[in-house]
Amino acid sequence: MSELLLAWVGRQGDREWEVLARGYVERIRRFVALDVVRLRPEPGRGHDAGRARAVEGEHLLALGRPLDRLVALDERGQEGTTEQLAESLAAWLTSGRVVLAVGLDLGLAASVVARAQSVLSLSPLTLPHALARVPLLEQVYRAPDLNAGGAYHRGGEGCRDVRYNYASGRHR
Prior knowledge:
two-stranded antiparallel ribbon; 5 helices; 38% helix; alpha/beta
């Protein structure tokens, strides 16, 4: 079975964000084995940000295996469409475990970005790290559902077939 690891540095987010994240984790697990590892932020971040980022990067890299595909989430990474992510994720999962690395407010260490085979950006917007996991997990769920022909993704041409019941706010 294909495997994904979401490795992120940070503190737990607001309760609502954590509930949303857990919901998508469970949905993703219908398609692929997923582990989520949270690493605690390095102490002293305010005094020596460079050292803290480097240590956090070492901890993230230590979670990897030799044949893993490391995908770093970075604001300077490549942006793409849902369809492109779905295609990429499907290809990546055929060759082994995929590790998605998410840094804290200081970003990822240069060593993590340099080691990554892919560097992606969720958005040019700045998001709190705990909240950023929600759209990431949502897209990681949407990708295999799209690849499996599921009904969740209604982007592109498929959205023309959706009819809305405006009175109830539901689509049919």
